[in-house]
Design brief:
Length: about 375
Amino acid sequence: MSRLPSVRTHARGYFFIRIAGKDHYLGKDRAAANAQAKLLLSEYLRHQHLSQTPRTVTSELTIEEIAIEYLCFAKTYYVGSERSADSFDRCRLSIKPLIELYGKEKPRQFGPLALKRVRERFVADGLACSTVNDRVNIIRQCFRWAVENEFCDSSVYQALKAVRPLQPGRSSAKVGKRVKSVSVEVVEQTILHLSPIIADLVRFQLHSGMRSSEMLKLRLCDIDRSRPIWRYNPSDHKTAWKQKERVVYFGPRCQGILATYLDRVGENSERYLFSPKDAVADHNQKRAAERKTPPQASKQNRPVKENPKRTPGDKYRRESYRTAILRACDRAGVERWFPHPTPPSCRNACKRGRGTGRLATLSRSQ
């Protein structure tokens, strides 16, 4: 595979992606097709092994070949947490214009002026100054990795280090807006338009100060309740790869929110406390209770559908949690806010969904 494939449209309206000469049909829904294509491509890159034979500088690999090799390495390097997928997406989005502009060139032909041209592509795409500098650094990392593995000469990487980062207000790149904390009043107005479980998630995050990725995978077996102040020590978190320990404390307010969900779990301590399955069950039960007419006889004994296409998951995803909050903001008529930063893969597709503030946190011991 000489370049990263993209989703294509079949003459009959189906979406498909061709990986290593094989077509994978993805259905007619674009959003589902893009998600499935991303998984297929990630799985393909995960199983690609770098050659064990040492290569010398004289092998004359093209920039496109080096970039593909680096993405294969990045897929196996950024593992262990949900944010690892975001790190790989940043690499993928940074490398893509490099392949498009200079994929067929040799590394020795890629210098500071060429790197500036790639940077101009990022600026033309409307990216903020900090994002442009971040993606340029990833391209440098790609060539540093190439030098480390003797895919190109060290002079290439040394020359790229001469390109200075863009300064806010001194270039044509736009200056990113400072993200401020959203007020508690706006959060309370939004909670009125959320489902009960999502509303409890927002309150719980507000009082605990947890990251969304840590909160959504909370289980009873991970909580130490032997003390008045409960302790939660997530095994997988943002800085776990640095061998750092993460401890979150749950005070009376957090314990009060968790009380209902502890009863739902019962003896299954490995079950996720906040589950979409419970939300769907509560919603169906509420609809049945509010029904004004008796159900039809044919629907009372209807068998459960086998192998449905979509079923609620065991835990919420960060994307679904954020989307629920954004929709509630629209219903409440308040400015959109979000509980966590938007992943790089979703920023361009969800520009209208990005909020103007980030969820503020109260004292962690409340």
